[in-house]
C-alpha cells in the first residue's frame, strides 16, 4: 500500500483515491479542530473525529515546564492513553495540578493499517494557585484580611470587594508574596 493519506489537508481531499481503494486498506482520517479549555476537573479537550474506520485514538501532551523555551519537539510528547475510536472529548485531570504550566496537546487516529497524521496542536496555561485560608478580622477603622499565598508563579494579587453581595470591584493590586491587607471602611 502507498503511503498516501486520504486526509483533509489544505482543503484538498483525494476523492479518486477514496473511490478506488478498499476502505479497509485506507489509513484513518486525521482528527481536526483540536481545542482545549479549563474545566473544574481538569483540561477539557474536544476535536472533530473524522474517521469512521479508526479502531482507536491516542492523545498526547507536552509539558513546557520540563522544557527549554524552544517549545515541544517530537520526543517531548507523552501519551495520555488510548481513547475510544468514536469519542471526540477527553478530560486531562492531571493537567490542573501544576500552576503556570504550558500544556500542548495533539491527537491521532489509528487502525490496523496504521496511524493518521497528528491533529493540530492546541495549548493552554494553567492559572496560578489561588490563596488559601482567607480570614477577615474587624478592627476600629475597618477589616484586616489575611490569607496564605500558595502560588509560586503569580505576578500580582488582585483584591476585590462586594459591598452588597452583588458586583465586585477591585480595591487593591498587591505584590504576589503579600498575605495581608487592611481595608478601611468608608461610610
TrEMBL record:
It comes from the Bacteria. PROSITE patterns: FN3. Residues 177-187 have a biased composition (Basic and acidic residues). InterPro entries: FN3_dom, FN3_sf, Ig-like_fold. Residues 27-129 form the Fibronectin type-III domain. CDD domains: FN3. Residues 168-187 are annotated as: Disordered. This is Fibronectin type-III domain-containing protein. It comes from Ectothiorhodospira marina.
Amino acid at each position: 500500500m502507498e503511503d498516501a493519506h486520504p486526509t483533509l489537508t489544505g482543503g484538498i481531499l483525494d476523492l479518486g483515491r477514496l473511490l478506488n481503494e478498499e476502505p479497509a486498506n485506507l489509513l484513518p482520517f486525521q482528527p481536526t479542530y483540536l481545542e482545549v479549555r479549563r474545566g473544574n476537573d481538569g483540561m477539557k479537550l474536544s476535536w472533530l473525529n473524522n474517521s469512521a474506520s479508526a479502531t482507536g485514538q491516542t492523545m498526547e501532551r507536552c509539558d513546557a515546564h520540563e522544557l527549554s523555551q524552544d517549545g515541544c519537539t517530537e520526543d517531548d510528547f507523552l501519551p495520555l492513553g488510548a481513547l475510544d475510536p468514536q469519542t471526540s472529548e477527553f478530560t486531562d485531570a492531571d493537567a490542573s495540578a501544576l500552576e503556570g504550566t504550558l500544556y500542548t496537546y495533539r491527537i491521532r487516529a489509528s487502525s490496523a493499517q496504521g496511524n493518521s497524521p497528528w491533529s493540530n496542536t492546541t495549548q493552554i496555561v494553567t492559572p496560578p494557585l489561588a490563596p488559601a485560608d482567607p480570614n477577615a478580622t474587624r478592627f476600629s477603622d475597618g477589616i484586616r484580611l489575611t490569607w496564605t499565598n500558595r502560588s509560586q508563579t503569580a505576578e500580582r494579587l488582585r483584591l476585590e470587594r462586594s459591598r452588597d453581595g452583588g458586583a465586585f470591584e477591585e480595591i487593591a493590586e498587591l505584590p504576589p508574596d503579600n498575605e495581608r491587607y487592611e481595608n478601611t471602611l468608608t461610610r
